[in-house]
Design a protein that fits this description.
It is a single chain. By secondary structure, the chain is an alpha+beta fold. The chain folds into 3 domains: 209 residues; 48 residues, LysM domain (Membrane-bound Lytic Murein Transglycosylase D, Chain A), CATH 3.10.350; 169 residues, Distorted Sandwich (Glucose Permease (Domain IIA)). It has 13 helices and 21 strands. The strands form 5 sheets. Strands 7, 8, 9, 10, 11, 12, 13, 14, 15, 16 and 21 form an 11-stranded antiparallel sheet that branches. Strands 17-18-19-20 form a 4-stranded antiparallel sheet. Strand 10 and strand 11 form a beta hairpin. The longest helix is centred in the middle third of the chain and has 22 residues.
Length: 483
């Protein structure tokens, strides 16, 4: 069995000694980490073989798929909660399929969770000040993002906000692969591919960072959701997490795996690899740890359905990724009654589900901070995606809104969408929270149910049940706000 060696808190000093640490300029303020009095939300214990997802192609049967993955029909039935060996399956349907994995990584921590998500550990971190103080290429970089010219630090901040991934981690990866933080003129290859040789978005820093953040999230939240994560390397080798590792470590290992063959990956995830660059920039990552990011005692504050009383929206999407396909299944979708299956702007407003302060407001995207401190990294934050801002009185950053105030109008703005809808998600202390629990999303008494596959599922309120579908059926998926 092959194993890998990863960094521990005690080995960080050795990693730091490998590189010359730049003079600290606008360095972040460390956050003291007391012994947590409350444990974090637990990571589920996975039983049975690891699995991946298979999209059924035309003509494929359970028998064929079982043969393809060296499995059995009976095993597929159990893994996918099917009615039996003769259950109907459809082209395009997702199935869980077993994997045979022999390479197991140790459960030694590499980096705390609070450094990987955009958590309270980042409240005092000045991205622009730090980047400008390093004097590298990133400090002189500009890019047009969605019609707005952003500086290099602003691009990093935009990605941190949208994906909720820690900017120190993003900057360390940008330095590790591209040298953009400390080098005024990186090499041509580093300018072309600033975030790794297999990042497909090399021509744009925003796109390359987005790809990177999404793959970090895939490992982080995939492990938290299923209790394991399978790393897939370009040389077709695979490895699996062992129980007990923290999710932040899995997220970092996952992005490093994308760019490495097996021998290189062993170096990258060890103390002499990526962590040496991180420590050279920021020191010991455990200095900034905030634990737990999400306590086991967490309960959701009261939230209302995000539209006006007396109005009805259709429940069109059960839990699915909050931002791109790598994040937690924190989002659900609602379609307005006046725009059915197309991308016209709705005239029916989407509203604030609770009192709060607007911390992000741009066309297609609004984020609402419920604790009112104006920090996107702390407490409860609600995401509204695909919302067009009001033309005459758009919400603005820093604006306080009350429950029921207009946020915007359902549209196809702010990402890929083939039908106008409101994409609604929650995060706490920077961590996206699965809509199906363990802290379930509840809106005006309607509770989202856990699901096996994204977009499919139910929401219930007492005896009332609604099923997520693109069917615009009043009895099947229409929810009227009666409060």
């Amino acid at each position: 069995m092959l194993t890998a060696t990863v960094a521990t808190p005690d080995s960080v000093a050795a990693a730091m000694a490998l590189l010359v640490t730049p003079a600290p300029v606008s360095s972040p303020t460390p956050v003291a980490t007391p012994t947590p009095a409350v444990p974090p939300l637990p990571i589920p214990i996975h039983e049975g073989p690891p699995y991946t997802y298979h999209t059924i192609a035309e003509g494929q049967t359970l028998g064929y798929i079982a043969l393809l993955y060296n499995s059995s029909i009976e095993e597929l039935v159990v893994m996918n909660d099917l009615d039996g060996p003769s259950a109907l399956i459809q082209t395009g349907q997702l199935l869980r399929v077993p994997l045979q994995i022999n390479n197991i990584l140790p459960a030694t921590p590499l980096i705390p969770d609070s450094e990987v998500v955009y958590s309270p550990a980042y409240v005092n971190f000045d991205i622009t000040g730090f980047v400008n103080g390093q004097g590298g290429y990133l400090s002189t970089y500009y890019e047009n993002v969605d019609g707005q010219e952003l500086t290099g630090p602003q691009v990093v901040e935009r990605v941190a906000q949208q994906f909720s991934v820690g900017p120190r981690l993003l900057l360390a990866l940008l330095e590790h692969y591209g040298g953009w933080v400390t080098q005024l003129q990186p090499m041509e290859e580093q300018l072309r591919l600033p975030l790794g040789p297999r990042n497909p978005k090399g021509g744009s820093l925003y796109q390359a960072l987005s790809f990177t953040a999404n793959r970090i999230n895939a490992g982080y939240y995939g492990y938290k959701r299923d209790g394991f994560w399978v790393f897939c390397l370009p040389d077709r080798s695979r490895a699996m997490t062992s129980p007990g590792v923290n999710a932040g470590t899995v997220g970092v290992q996952n992005i490093l795996a994308i760019h490495s063959d097996w021998p290189t990956w062993q170096q990258e995830i060890g103390p002499n690899g990526f962590m040496a660059h991180y420590c050279a920039l920021f020191g010991d990552p455990f200095t900034y740890a905030v634990e737990p990011v999400v306590p086991i005692t967490l309960t959701q504050p009261p939230l209302s359905l995000p539209w006006a009383r007396g109005e009805g929206f259709y429940f069109t999407g059960a839990p699915h990724p909050a931002y791109a396909d790598g994040s937690a299944w924190a989002a659900i979708d609602f379609g307005p009654p006046d725009v059915l299956g197309n991308c016209y702007y709705s005239a029916v407003p989407s509203t604030a589900a609770a009192d709060g302060v607007i911390v992000v407001a741009r066309q297609g995207e609004v984020q609402l901070d419920l604790d009112g401190d104006g920090n996107i990294q702390t407490g409860w934050v609600l995401l509204y995606l695909h919302v067009a801002l009001d033309v005459n009185t758009p919400v603005q950053v820093g604006q306080r809104v009350a429950q029921g105030d207009i946020i915007g109008y359902a549209s196809c703005e702010g990402g890929l969408s083939n039908s106008s809808h409101v994409h609604f998600a929650r995060r706490y202390n920077g961590e996206w929270l699965d809509a199906g629990g363990p802290v379930p999303l509840i809106l005006s008494g309607w509770e989202v149910q856990p699901n096996l596959f994204p977009y499919e599922g139910l929401i219930i309120k007492g005896p009332e049940v609604r099923e997520a579908c693109q069917c615009w059926d009043a009895e099947r998926n229409l929810i009227v706000n009666t409060e």
